[in-house]
Design brief:
This protein is α/β, with parallel strands linked by helices and 281 residues long. Helices cover 44% and strands 21% of the residues. The strands form 2 sheets. Strands 3-4-6-7-8-9-10-11 form an 8-stranded mixed barrel, surrounded by 4 helices. A hairpin with a 5-residue loop joins β1 and β2. α3 packs parallel to α5. It is globular and about 50 Å long. The protein starts with a strand and ends in a 6-residue tail after the last helix. The structure holds ligand C2E and calcium ion (CA) (3 copies). One calcium ion binds next to loops. Ligand C2E binds next to β4, α3 and β8. This is EAL domain-containing protein. It comes from Paractinoplanes aksuensis.
Length: 281
């Protein structure tokens, strides 16, 4: 499951089947990477659709691989999910992201109301210690629970609905906000969505790509905006790259936006500069 990468390095390619040996090696590599602190978190701005001011940042994990360079989640999240290492890795991301938000807030008045979004994987969501992990990360960073939004996907909620609902209510009980990620790509029904204690709907990039030109996408996004209003959930559009997409989504009443137009995933110093109005990213 390795192929020559851009720089002639070998990188993991999840679309290729791994041998048992390669899987075992990747597991060892991931374990070592955690111990050696080779993972890093980048942060992508989420902005207010009207003002473009940054309201939140989404934590996105990277692996600073000693041989293969900076690897995106595509190269290791699925494997970590399969071998269970996603639980300690996800815990590390959560703790790191909370600690980083506390640092930004301490450094800069511009970060006083900044919030953080953290992705959860299916395995993490099923893990019995999740609620304690979340409470611990907030406590140790000295953050109020409302500063944290956890992102989960529809498919994670469909597997065992009753357990999922209990977990969501326990997290909500802490005061944490919950977002449905990649909305529209799963199969959750409206009646189901209505029962869930969800605060935010993140509209998948696939509906955003052609929203400035495709009437069907306009109709779909319009419907989701209405859904958000009816269910009192905030809406975020993902993957906004152009002014035309932004203008259309704003007109449709989407609350927040995320995408390269507003900022790529960036390191903590770049985010600090962005918040202070010193630079764009
Ligand atoms: P996601 O949660 O849907 O995150 C958004 C992805 O879209 C990110 O990719 C981001 O860099 C990319 N993106 C944002 N704006 C644009 C845009 O305007 N154009 C394009 N082409 N792409 C854009 P990334 O960082 O490679 O992450 C991919 C996925 O990996 C994430 O998708 C998420 O599912 C997963 N992931 C990332 N970090 C974590 C983590 O800490 N834990 C877990 N469980 N999953 C993670
Ligand atoms: Ca996400
Ligand atoms: Ca997403
Ligand atoms: Ca997506």
């Amino acid at each position: 499951a390795k192929r020559a990468g851009r720089n002639g390095y070998a990188v993991f390619d999840p679309t290729m089947t791994m041998s048992v040996l390669e899987e075992a090696q990747l597991r060892i590599d991931l374990e070592q990477a955690l111990e050696r602190e080779e993972f890093a978190v980048l942060y992508q701005p989420v902005v207010d659709m009207q003002t473009q001011s940054v309201t939140s940042v989404e934590a996105l994990v990277r692996w600073n691989h000693p041989r293969d360079g900076l690897l995106g989640p595509y190269h290791f999240i699925a494997a970590a999910e399969a071998n269970g290492l996603i639980v300690p890795l996800g815990r590390w991301v959560l703790r790191e992201a909370c600690a980083q938000l506390a640092r930004w807030r301490a450094e800069s008045p511009a970060a006083a109301t900044l919030k953080i979004n953290v992705n959860l994987s299916a395995r993490q969501f099923q893990y019995a210690g999740l609620v304690d992990d979340v409470a611990g990360a907030l406590h140790d960073a000295g953050l109020d629970a409302a500063a944290l939004t956890l992102e989960i996907t529809e498919s994670m909620l469909m597997e065992d609905i009753e357990t999922a609902k209990r977990t969501l209510h326990a997290l909500r009980g802490l005061g944490v906000r919950l977002a449905i990620d990649d909305f529209g790509t799963g199969y959750s029904s409206l009646s189901y969505l209505k029962q869930l204690p969800v605060d935010v709907i993140k509209i998948d990039k696939t509906f955003v790509d052609d929203v400035d030109t495709d009437a069907d996408d306009v109709a779909l996004v319009d419907a989701v905006a209405g859904l958000g209003q009816a269910l009192k959930m905030q809406t975020v559009a993902e993957g906004i790259e152009t002014d035309a997409q932004w203008a259309t989504l704003r007109r449709l009443g989407i609350d927040h936006g995320q995408g390269y137009l507003f900022g790529r995933p960036a390191d903590p110093e770049q985010i600090r500069a962005l918040l202070n109005g010193v630079s764009t990213i």
